[in-house]
Amino acid sequence: MDASERRVLKRYNIRTPLRFRTLNLTGGNSDHFTEAINVSRGGFYFATSAPLKMGMPIEATIRMPAEVTGGEARLTSCTARVVRVKSQAYKDGRVGFGMEIEQ
Q1: Chain-centre distance for alpha carbon 49
Q2: pLDDT of residue 16
């Protein structure tokens, strides 16, 4: 395993629907719709044009696939925090964010 790799839980490269809302004190609490690019029991990665920053919390609703739940796919609501920001934006201007599920 790469020394910089900190993941403990297996990630699945499965695209799945994601809705999220930022939890900040300055407003901007509108819903954003996108898809997670990969998921695990402890987090997910997605790209968005929403102005997220390292450490920022979000409320998310994500469809966790059967590979992650160990049973049937199910809609999951959670609170997550930005723990990784991709340094280079995608060609369409969106930025990638790694999220750690807190609740």
Answers
A1: 13
A2: 94
